[in-house]
Design brief:
A nine-stranded mixed sheet has the order 5-4-1-8-9-10-11-12-13, with helices on both faces. A four-stranded mixed sheet has the order 3-2-6-7. It has one domain: Ribokinase (UDP-N-acetylmuramoyl-L-alanine:D-glutamate ligase), CATH 3.40.1190.20. Helix content is 38%, strand content 27%. A hairpin with a 2-residue loop joins strand 6 and strand 7. Helix 1 packs antiparallel against helix 10 and helix 8 packs antiparallel against helix 9. The protein is an alpha/beta fold.
Length: 330
C-alpha cells in the first residue's frame, strides 16, 4: 500500500460505523505510594493520592474505534446500580452513544479496581457477576441488537468477549446470521467459554494461549508452521475466513486463503500490556471495513498494539501516532 492510499484510508475511517457487542466494565485506578509495611500483616500500606475511573472491557474497544475517527455503537447489558450510572456518565463524557446499552436489575455492573504504586501494578480487585444472561434478558438483548443491525448502516461488527455473560450462544448465532445476510464483516475477540461457537465469522482473533486451549493442542510458540496449521484447523472447523493470532513478543500472525504472514513485534519500551488486544481488534475492524488485505491488517494492528503497551493503564490508540508509524513502515 502506498502512503497516499494509506492516508486516504485513515481519513475514511471517519465515515465508518462499528457496532461492538460484549462485556463492559469500569476500570478503576487507585494511584498511591508505599512507605511502610502494615503491622497487622506482611503487606504494604498504600497511601492513595489519586483515583480515576475509565471505561473498560468492550467499552475500551469502543473508545479505540472512536479514537480512530469512526462512530462506535457499544451494545451491552449493565446493572441498574451506582456503577451502572457511573458507566453511563463515562460514556457521555467520552462522547459515546448509549443507545446500544440495556439497563437491567438482574445484572451488576462490573468494576475492576487496580492499585498502582510507583508505576507498579500492586493489586487488582474485581467486583462482578459472570453468569449468562437469563432467557428473558437474552431475548430482550437479541431484539435490541436486531433493531440496531437492521436500522443502522453498520460497516463492521465486533464481538468483544470477556466471559462475563453478555454474549451467549444464541446471541452469537442470531447476530452472525444477520450480519452475513447484510454482508457486514464480523470480527471476534474470543474467550474460553464461547470459543468454539463463533462459526461463520469474518475474522477470529484469539491470542496464542486461547488458540492452544481452544483447540486442545500443545505447540511451540516459535514454530510458525504449527501455528499456521492450528489457524487452518480453526478456519475449517468453524468456517472462518481470516484467523489473526496475537503472539505477544513475537508479533501478530494472520492466515487467509491458505497463505499466512507474521508481523514481527517492534522493539518498544513495554510498560503495560492491558488493553492491547482491544486496540488490535478495533484497528483490525476498521482495516477490514476499508478492504485492507490480510498482510496490511496484521502490520497496522501490530503497530497499534505496540503503541498502547508503552502507556500505563488501559488507554485508546492515538490515531495520528499510528498513522505516522505506519507511514514510516510503508
Amino acid at each position: 500500500m502506498n502512503k497516499e492510499k494509506l492516508k486516504h484510508s485513515f481519513e475514511q475511517f471517519n465515515n465508518k460505523k462499528i457496532l461492538i457487542i460484549g462485556d463492559v466494565m469500569i476500570d478503576a485506578y487507585m494511584w498511591g505510594n508505599v512507605e511502610r509495611i502494615s503491622p497487622e500483616a506482611p503487606v504494604p500500606i498504600v497511601s492513595i493520592a489519586n483515583r480515576e475511573k475509565r471505561l473498560g472491557g468492550a467499552a475500551n474497544v469502543a473508545l479505540n474505534v472512536r479514537a480512530l475517527g469512526a462512530e462506535a455503537i457499544l451494545c451491552a447489558v449493565i446493572g441498574d446500580d451506582d456503577n451502572g450510572k457511573i458507566f453511563q456518565q463515562l460514556l457521555k463524557k467520552r462522547n459515546l452513544t448509549s443507545k446500544g446499552i440495556l439497563v437491567n436489575k438482574e445484572r451488576n455492573t462490573t468494576i475492576k479496581t487496580r492499585i498502582i504504586c510507583d508505576n507498579q501494578h500492586l493489586l487488582r480487585v474485581d467486583e462482578e457477576i459472570c453468569e449468562p444472561l437469563s432467557l428473558t434478558l437474552e431475548n430482550k438483548f437479541i431484539e435490541h441488537l436486531s433493531k440496531l443491525i437492521s436500522n443502522d448502516k453498520i460497516d463492521a461488527l465486533i464481538f468483544e468477549d470477556y466471559d462475563k455473560g453478555n454474549i451467549t450462544h444464541r446471541i452469537i448465532e442470531h447476530v452472525v446470521s444477520l450480519t452475513n445476510k447484510k454482508n457486514i464483516p464480523t470480527l471476534v475477540d474470543p474467550k474460553k467459554h464461547n470459543f468454539n461457537f463463533y462459526k461463520n465469522v469474518s475474522l477470529f482473533k484469539p491470542n496464542f494461549k486461547e488458540t492452544t486451549e481452544g483447540l486442545k493442542i500443545d505447540i511451540d510458540k516459535n514454530n510458525i508452521e504449527s501455528i499456521h496449521k492450528a489457524a487452518q484447523t480453526l478456519q475449517t472447523k468453524m468456517n472462518i475466513k481470516t484467523v489473526l493470532i496475537t503472539l505477544s513478543e513475537l508479533g501478530i500472525f494472520i492466515c487467509e486463503d491458505g497463505s499466512y504472514y507474521n508481523a514481527p513485534a517492534q522493539i518498544r519500551d513495554i510498560v503495560d500490556v492491558s488493553g492491547a488486544g482491544d486496540t488490535v481488534i478495533s484497528v483490525a475492524s476498521l482495516c477490514m471495513a476499508s478492504n485492507f488485505d490480510a498482510k496490511n491488517i496484521a502490520q497496522i494492528s501490530n503497530i497499534a498494539g505496540g503503541i498502547v503497551c508503552e502507556k500505563i493503564g488501559v488507554v485508546p490508540i492515538d490515531k495520528e501516532q499510528l498513522l505516522n508509524e505506519c507511514l514510516s513502515l510503508f
